[in-house]
């Protein structure tokens, strides 16, 4: 049964929130001030109709919007959407008592996402390939995607055919597709064990379609061309399923902000370094020590640095920074530092940074809440927060990246 609700505000995940006698009710694809009807189930509801629309409601960019769970906010007017996303960072910092200069949101262009994770499943009617429905395991087959690079959208038919060839399970599986300088890199997970015949057919298909690589559960099935990504002027052959920033433009912007802040540093530590998106750019002017827990990513960074020209010394260290963060004594060997942890942030590592006397620190985060927690630790340890720049690289989603720049007065070392 549908009931009438008034939307009061947007929640942190982009859902409209209506106040009810039993608490807040979350209704996706609605906007503040709207009057809607929705079918309620506990604290969530499915939108049935918009009775009175917000003046900020716009026509979605994609025919699959509201069915596909990939985007949450295509119906939100552009400038209002950007203000809301920036405010997520402001709100998180205020929650920890932090006030500083927060820049305008660096916008994300449509058709710029270089890596998407598709869901696939074999059905009686054929192979489904697309994204999961909002908060559901159901797969919505897609024929367009306005956030993704055109190379991905143009290949949807071939990717669906490849999914059919490699499927050896009755369950759904994941297909991560990344645009690289060598072609599409396709990393599949949980599609089942391939037989030799299937493997040969899939390999021939990959070659025929001009894909760069196919891997299944991190095992390379075939690699006609090593997938290469440029970090500044350095070419890196990335391992299967490796982490990359979602858009090349956002990565470049973050690297420019970080590099500008650390320009006076002669020796820099890059923590959670990945394949070197920061380290290899910073190494054009400074010595860099890259610390990363993933062996394959660190190896790719190392190979990239060895074959590049014009770089200062780059060293690498494999280390789980959650279990064994660099100590403040180790950090004191550096005069610049950048850290870019996963969404959980870097609480223990931040405590060690706070005790150090590294004068220039750049913190990069995809989670404003854990960023605020880590910045609070650094500020309490004597750092001054100069600026925070919000960056959108997850268009029409609730996710927002941020780069925070900090300084600590240099202490005389005994």
Automatic annotation (TrEMBL):
Q: Does the keyword Iron apply?
A: yes
Instruction: Give the organism's phylogenetic lineage.
Output: Bacteria, Pseudomonadati, Pseudomonadota, Alphaproteobacteria, Hyphomicrobiales
Catalytic site: 366
> What protein is this chain from?
SAM-dependent methyltransferase, tRNA(Uracil-5)-methyltransferase
Superkingdom field: Bacteria
Please report a single Pfam family linked to this protein. Answer: tRNA_U5-meth_tr
Signal peptide interval: none
What SUPFAM superfamilies does this protein map onto?
A: Nucleic acid-binding proteins, S-adenosyl-L-methionine-dependent methyltransferases
InterPro entries from the entry? MeTrfase_TrmA_AS (IPR030390), NA-bd_OB-fold (IPR012340), SAM-dependent_MTases_sf (IPR029063), U5_MeTrfase_fam (IPR010280)
Does the record's keyword annotation contain 4Fe-4S? yes
Name the PROSITE patterns on file.
Answer: SAM_MT_RNA_M5U (PS51687), TRMA_1 (PS01230)
Query: Which residues take part in binding S-adenosyl-L-methionine?
Result: 245, 272, 292, 340
Q: Which GO terms describe its molecular function?
A: 4 iron, 4 sulfur cluster binding; rRNA (uridine-C5-)-methyltransferase activity
